[in-house]
Amino acid sequence: MTTSIKLVAAVIPPWTTSAPVKRLIATGRAQRGVSLVEALVALLVMSFGMVALVGILSSLRRAEDLARQRGEAQRIAQSEIARLRSFSVIDRPAAAAAGVVAFSDMGVGTTVTREETPPDSNVKYTVTQTSAWSATTPNLAEVRVSVTWNDRVGDAQVLALDTLIAAVDPVFGGGLAVPQPVGVTRQPANRSPDIPVGAKDLGDKTSAYKPSPGGGTAWVFDNQTGLITKSCSVSTGIATSAITSGDLTSCASVSNGLFVSGTIRFSMTAPPNARVPEATAAPAHAAVTLISTGHPAAPVCFDDSGTVPYAITYACLILGNTDTPSIWSGSIELTGIDTTTLPTPPYRVCRYTFDYNRNGTPDNEEHPATYANVAKSLPRQNFLVIAGAQSCPVDSSTFDPAARNFVNYTTKEQQPTRTP
Q1: What's the pLDDT tens digit per position in 96-128?
Q2: Is the dihedral angle over the CA atoms 331, 335, 337, 343 positive or is it negative?
Q3: Where is this region: Disordered (predicted)?
Q4: Can you list the domains of the chain with their CATH numbers?
Q5: pTM for the model
Q6: Is 336 left (phi over 0), alpha (psi -120 to 50) or beta?
């Protein structure tokens, strides 16, 4: 019996003939997994990423912490400003009830510092309040509240808020509830308050006034501006209250006529009485000395000296200069009385003056020793004449509109020595 053996060639699938497979077959092995070096490099890259992520998280935490601290600081500063604005009186009364807040408590011109730590806060804040009177606006305080602290890493941080607070009594806020009349806001007697109360309204938007009751001169005021526009001749026997337009003759036009008036009273007691001067008036007259230039004529003053026993009323017409706006600067002093004899003159002249708007210096309306750049009429520029051996009296009472105390009787020396 014959046995035959057949050799059958292995059939290789067609896809095994591709180039990559041929190379694999040629090498006899295939790559599997990654090497240790590659793993270490990947771990190193991931480590750098984790470190950067930790830094970012730390920065975010500090930024969130700082934002919360700034929010607290702003709340503290706003609360402090609200407290300063919550005053109910200007000057603190002697027997003020608990909880009363006064504008004077702010201490304009001083620096006040305190510390505050809010509940659940990890920071102690230092609150500093500084204030000063405005250099341009009377009766206005410029206030800054600064809050400082150290953040989580010890860096100094600061937040500051600025505001303006007016020294205006809150009682006047009640006027906001009163409806305004239709048209222009009305002035006393429908004219400028700078016009003398006793001036006669002529019915043509002007008023007439005799600066000397027994004289033959009358001044005509513009009711709106309070300036003198004419100087006229009138009968010496006519009173201001009886003047009509037909009584004004020989009128000369006046340009930039500024009016200054006041009273001169006398007190010879020791100490002198500034509230109720008791002495008989001596012959005295007001005189204006100009230090400004460019005026078309010298000032003219009238008074009723010798016609009343206890007070002299004076009135002066000062023509403004050629500046824009037209102004005058100078001083008002009294003549006719001896204030110069040494060592002790018979009389000493004091002027009533008080810093009503609390700006640190008497303004033109508040009767300074020397007027500067006056561009409006000035009524109520009053004097007190005392014995030469006495000192000008000072009123110790507090100017307090809330207590209906609207006047302070403080005086300062004008002659022979001036004090600001």
Answers
A1: 777 788 888 888 999 999 999 888 888 899 999
A2: positive
A3: 183-204
A4: 61-88+104-168 (2.20.25.110), 188-415 (no CATH)
A5: 0.56
A6: left
